[in-house]
Write a structure and sequence with these properties.
single chain, alpha/beta, Aspartate Aminotransferase, domain 1, eight-stranded mixed beta sheet, four-stranded antiparallel beta sheet, 15 strands, globular, binds pyridoxal-5'-phosphate, DegT/StrS_aminotransferase, aminotransferase, pyridoxal phosphate, transaminase activity, PyrdxlP-dep_Trfase_small
């Protein structure tokens, strides 16, 4: 059960910028309390401005955006979809919604994201069996950009469309480009725990006008052009509300500040914990700029204490930490899925921990976390 006790230090809490209530209040005054209205267009415009995406479609969750993205790039029941195994379950779940099958691909050590070597192995293995994957769904985990150049080159070589799950990586950049904007479609999440929030929401971005139009069509019940209600395709009720979009407008105003604050939190932990040899931080590879959504550390075997023990100890002090995502190919839900790689994500899962990373943490709170960690390791 979620713990809301007073004074709790959360892993990643919402952090309002101040102008959200103006947009929400205006929506209520003008009676745009629905899934159409000026905040929605405004929010989509803001997303494009901040990410340099050509088109944005605001939806009611990141999961919905992944589902719609898979549909618009043409994934059908019975297809196979290449997918990062080191991620949150919301990445592969929509593959199952469609009746397609995930092919899980493991990570490489520089970014913890999809390994280009394992990706090529997966594609070649399936081609030998006479099956061609119909999509590549890759993740930028914890805000760290994946090796997009290599991954997209491989996908292009085999003419496989790319969807970027940038749910955790809004504001991160790869080679100067905002992540989410380099594949056929990109997905952001505005869930309450993400770097900015609409309370719950998501967006699909794309450079392709047809993809944007088709995504909006599917997300609004796939109504054919007719005055009566006529439907030839399966659609969804996935549009964002004008109230949520109003929160989003206020949040996008402070996105750059939130990225700066999360990066400062990462630097704070790294500096204060540098004396503890067994705590390993992840530097940014060349060309990668991470929003540092969550600060993650690996605890070396020498520390003789497991991430779960650390989590439990900090929990007693009302500090929320979290183990790294348990890889999808190890989940009971996906026990029959194919998997390609060398087991790196499982090793990361066994030794890793996410530290409290809310952008509104005070210096005292950060100090409390650092002291609690230091006590744990008796430095
Ligand atoms: C949060 C998240 C999602 C899903 O976003 P929701 O808005 O919560 O549906 C998808 N993928 C990853 C990697 C996430 O962290």
């Amino acid at each position: 059960m979620t713990n809301y006790s007073p004074g709790r230090i959360f892993l990643s809490a919402p952090h309002m910028g101040g102008h959200e209530k103006n947009y929400v209040q205006k929506a209520i005054e003008d009676n745009w309390v629905t899934t159409v209205g000026p905040n929605i267009q405004g929010f989509e415009h803001d997303i494009c401005q901040h990410t340099n995406a050509r088109h944005a479609v605001a939806l009611n969750s990141g999961t919905a955006a992944i589902h719609v993205a898979l549909r618009v790039v043409g994934v059908k029941a019975g297809d196979e979809v290449l997918c990062s195994t080191f991620t949150f379950v919301a990445t592969p779940n929509p593959i199952l919604y469609i009746g397609a099958t995930p092919l899980f691909v493991d990570s490489e050590p520089d970014t913890w994201n999809m390994s280009p070597t394992a990706l090529r192995e997966a594609i070649e293995n399936r081609l030998k069996k006479g099956k061609k994957p119909s999509c590549l769904l890759l993740v930028h985990l914890y805000g760290m950009p994946a090796k997009l150049k290599e991954l997209i080159e491989i996908a292009n070589e085999f003419e496989i469309p790319v969807i970027e799950d940038a749910a955790e990586a809004l504001g991160s950049r790869y080679g100067g480009h905002q992540v989410g904007t380099l594949g056929q479609a990109g997905v952001f999440s505005f869930n309450g725990n993400k770097i900015v929030t609409t309370s719950g929401g998501g967006a699909l971005v794309t450079a392709d006008k047809n993809i944007a139009e088709q995504a909006l069509f599917l997300a609004t019940q796939a109504k054919d052009q007719a005055t009566h209600y006529q439907h030839s395709q399966l659609g969804y009720n996935y549009r964002i509300s004008n109230i949520s979009a109003g929160i989003g407008r206020g949040q996008i105003e402070v996105l750059e500040t939130r990225v700066k604050q999360r990066r400062e939190i990462y630097n704070y932990y790294r500096e204060k914990l540098q004396d503890i040899e067994g705590i390993i931080f992840k530097p940014e590879p060349k060309g990668c700029f991470s929003n540092r959504w969550l600060t993650t550390v690996l605890l070396s075997e020498d520390l003789k204490v497991s991430p779960e023990e650390v989590r439990q100890t900090l929990e007693k002090e009302n500090i929320e930490t979290r183990l790294l995502w348990k890889p999808m190919h190890l989940q009971p839900l996906f026990k029959d899925s194919l998997y390609y790689g060398d087991g790196l994500s499982e090793k990361l899962f066994n030794r890793g921990l996410c530290l409290p990373s809310s952008s509104n943490l005070s210096e005292e709170e950060l100090d409390k976390v650092v002291k609690a960690l230091k006590r744990q390791f008796e430095v």
